[in-house]
Amino acid sequence: MNHKRLIDRIYSVKLLLSIFSLSFSWCTHPFRRHAFPLQERTIGRTFPCLFQKSSRDIKKGRWSKSPASYTSSSDDEFKKWIYGELVEEAGSALVEEFGSDLFHKISACITRWRQRYRDGDGSALLWKRLFKRDRVVKEIIESLPIVHAMDAYFLEKNNHNVTIIDLCSGKGYLSMLLSEYLPHEKVRKLVLVDKAWPMCFAEPRPHHINWDHIYGNYTIDNGEKEASYFSIWPIPLHTSKQDLKSPSTMRQLKIRFSGTDEAIFILAVHLCGTLSIQAVKLFHELESAQGLILKPCCLPGMVHSKRQPTFHIDKYGFPTADVCAPGYWKNKEWEGPPRWHLEKKFHIWSHHLHQGMKQDASNIQTRLVEVPVQTNGGFQNTFLFAEKQPTTSTMWEVIPDRAK
Fold first, then answer.
1. Biggest CA pair distance of the chain
2. Is the separation of the CB atoms in 226 and 220 below 8 Å?
3. Whether the predicted pLDDT of 45 surpasses 50
4. Which pairing describes strands 225-228 and 382-388: parallel, antiparallel, or unpaired?
5. Could you give the CA distance from residue 393 to residue 182 in angstroms, rounded to a whole number?
6. The CA-based dihedral angle spanning residues 204, 334, 354, 98, taken in that order and rounded to the nearest 10 degrees
7. pLDDT classification of 50: cutoffs 50, 70, 90
8. Pairing mode, if any, of strands 382-388 and 364-370?
């Protein structure tokens, strides 16, 4: 009897190994890896040898720091290199949609960043710290619809004296790009709002975003004088330490930007969870806010569904259970269920945000658009556009009229 049980167990183990082998082969097949990149990341952490970068990728600079990204190459060489990186990362569909001229202009802007930090004592180190190829290229590609729309927005001659608020700006790559890209005579300033900035006039601490690329000094006249980077951005960049989840912050922003002759345009890229709701509320409640472009990111956490049954954007409400989901990011790793399980909820979340934006349809023009800017299989490709009357026809003409 014991002998029979042993044989049965051996066959059971063989069967389980066969099933695992078939499942493993299915997940790691090239087509499956393209369609379900999550499996590649999960299995890759366990069996890293299966997903080593190819020598072809390394030669292209995709997985390693290219010397062209620092100070050794000429400006023309760097501009050509970064243009190639952007085009390759974006893919032919995005290049065709937005046009190669947009990519050339963006490449010229990034080259001017490099010129700004290349000269002066220690500035090359600042450039190396600021410019990380993968991070910068990803941020730029995912901001293409915003740059394209803002470019068209300022073709309208009446749009001037505008202040752009960049919510949850991080280091400020988008604002840095727009400072170089947009007409400086029409934009008063760019305000980079993030809770990780230091307080005004304080020294940055390790847990803060370092703002040397905005307020730092550099030497001129052979090191005899010092000047500030702040003074040489074409459109001034201002940082603002604000926690958008705090009610007092929303009140302060409304007080700060109310009662002025400047028009406000709000940009909200990669806003996690309920921060997207805060952005829409700010757009509605701030009288001087003329436009909003929102790209939602993570879904609200499950804790919200336990605290309240309904989310509200002014008069519009929707069930928290429809959009809240488990999981969170920790040290750049996703902790929770497979992310592709959340795609349906993400589109429901985007739909509700859009409904909250257009509740005053007679006074506000809105559009929900899907643009496949996440080139590695991600599904967070939704952009929400809104503008109060009078609207800018040049901008709405370039915003594609399509949704999923």
1. 93
2. yes
3. no
4. unpaired
5. 18
6. 80
7. very low
8. antiparallel
pLDDT band at 20; cut points 50, 70, 90: low
Conformation bin of residue 84: beta by default, left when phi > 0, alpha when psi is -120 to 50: alpha
Q: Quick one: DSSP state of residue 325?
A: -
Instruction: Looking at 182-291, list the stretches that DSSP marks H as alpha helix, in order from N- to C-terminal side.
Output: 212-215, 247-256, 275-285
Sign of the CA dihedral with 277 first, then 280, 284, and 288 last? positive
Q: Could you identify the residue written with the tokens 């519009």? A: 316
Let me know the angle formed at the C-alpha of 23 by 22 and 24, rounded to the nearest 5 degrees.
90
Q: What does the alpha-carbon distance between residue 163 and residue 100 come to, in Å, rounded to a whole number?
A: 28
pLDDT for 159 equals 77
Determine phi and psi for 190, rounding to 5 degrees. -120, 125
Strand duo 225-228 + 217-220: pairing: antiparallel
In the chain, ranges of CATH 3.40.50 domains: 162-214+234-398
Torsion of CA 287, 290, 295, 296, to 10 degrees: 20
Which helix (H) or strand (E) element contains residue 317?
Answer: strand 316-319
Sign of CA dihedral 68, 62, 86, 42: negative
Q: Cβ distance 105 to 129 under 8 Å?
A: no
Which of the pair, 141 or 1, is modelled with greater confidence?
141
> Could you say which of 3.40.50, 1.10.150, 3.30.70, 2.40.128 is the CATH number of the domain covering 162-214+234-398?
3.40.50
List the one residue out of 276, 298, 282, 293 whose CA is nearest residue 143: 293
Amino acid at 274: T
Q: What single-letter DSSP state applies at residue 299?
A: P
CB count within 10 Å of CB 62 equals: 17
The β-bridge partners of 269 are 295
The tokens describing 236, both together, are 């001034």
Do residues 302 and 282 lie in contact, with contact meaning Cβ atoms separated by under 8 Å? no
Residue type, 167: L
Nearest CA to 295 among 143, 93, 173, 178? 143
Cα 56 versus chain centre, distance: 28
DSSP state of 313: E
Cα–Cα distance for residue pair 169/250, rounded to 1 Å: 16
Whether the predicted model's global pTM rises above the 0.85 cut:
no
Is the Cβ–Cβ distance between 380 and 138 less than 8 Å?
A: no
Say how far apart CA 210 and CA 213 lie, in whole Å: 8
